[in-house]
Amino acid sequence: MSDQRFSVFAPGKTILFGEHFVVRGGQALAVPVSELGTTGKVSPAAELSFCCAADVAFVKRAFFTVCEAIGMAPPAIELDLETTLPIGAGLGSSASLAVALAEIALRLAERRPSEEEINQLAYRLEQLAHGAPSGVDNTVIAYRQPIVFKSRKEIRSLNLSAPLQLLIADTGVQASTAAVVAGVAQRATANSAWFADLLGQADALVDQAALALENAELERLGRLLNANHRLLVELGVSSSELDRLVEAALAAGAKGAKMTGAGAGGCMIALVDSEAGRSVGAALKAAGAVRLWSTQVDAVDPRGAQR
Ligand code: MEV
Per-residue pLDDT for 225 more than 70? Predict the structure, then answer.
């Protein structure tokens, strides 16, 4: 029986730019959402047992997968998992669970895992959940800092020069990432010139947004978010509920707004300042948001990416 007792926390994430395009060769800009996340508590037990509100069968399968990947026999522990993230809503619930499980397994194997070790292992779980994910979600969560992600080998950390204040609103409509990604694949294959044009525009937005964040140009960042939302509408991954929330946020004074994550439901984000925050929040609720969160992404993480 293991005598280890510890807890881990993995945050959520939001993609500011480039979702979907990043699956097909583009880049994405993502930030952690530290106000929401997955908490995993490990305590000694006579045998392995799981206590979680999420899909226990998936959690078990995922935990056995990480144990096997690191060559560890499943330990005798009680694993208690809780999440404050909405499921299937674009805020990284599965990647957050993956990062938490990866860290737990590596710590139980008595390793002091690096962020990259956790990230690599978490990616395997994301494959289990979504097939062929880009890896942006587990990476931003494992590193807990804003990143520009091009591929699993091309990632750079982003130094924000001003904190970002975001409102996140949930349409309450759950969507399957794998299904939405498959729909994009079909449309991209059927009309490759159309998709290449959108991808070029999306990639340019990521470059401009990275500069805007590094230079604290928040008005500009807002306009870029709006442009990214329009591209996602054209890609066919937004929804009437998301569009309604985006319009409501802009009309109430948000600097910019867009859907985030896989789309077809789930969440949208609005860039606000302290003045507009309250009125934008009220407008989002009036326009149908079932849940609303406020998150601040802090300027400059001194750790920097280790790559
Ligand atoms: C989902 O959070 C982001 C997508 O781009 C999928 C992926 O990157 O694997 C839609």
Answer: yes
- pTM above threshold 0.85: yes
Assess whether pLDDT exceeds 50 at residue 53: yes
* Ligand 1: lining residues by beta carbon, under 6 Å: 15, 19-20, 22-23, 90, 133-134, 136-137, 177, 181, 261-262
Give which of 146, 145, 183 is closest to 263, Cα–Cα.
183
Candidate CATH numbers 1.10.1410.10, 3.30.70.890, 3.40.30.10, 3.10.200.10; the one for domain 164-297:
3.30.70.890
Reduce the DSSP state of residue 231 to 3 states and report it. Answer: helix
Tens digit of pLDDT for each residue in 85-140? Answer: 999 999 999 999 999 999 999 999 988 999 999 999 999 999 998 889 999 999 99
Mean of per-residue pLDDT scores for the chain? 94
Residue 104, classified by CB atoms within 10 Å of its CB into exposed (0-12), middle (13-18) or buried (19+), is buried
3-state secondary structure of 296: strand
Specify the pLDDT at position 55.
Answer: 83
Which residue type does 267 have? C
Question: In angstroms, what CA-CA distances link 237 with 179, 185, 207, 208, 260?
Answer: 11, 12, 22, 23, 10
Distance CA 169, CA 166 (A): 10
CATH number of the domain at 6-157, please? 3.30.230.10
- Which tokens hold the place of 184? 């994009």
Q: What end-to-end distance do the CA atoms of the chain give, in Å?
A: 37
**CA 43 – ligand 1 centroid, Å:** 33
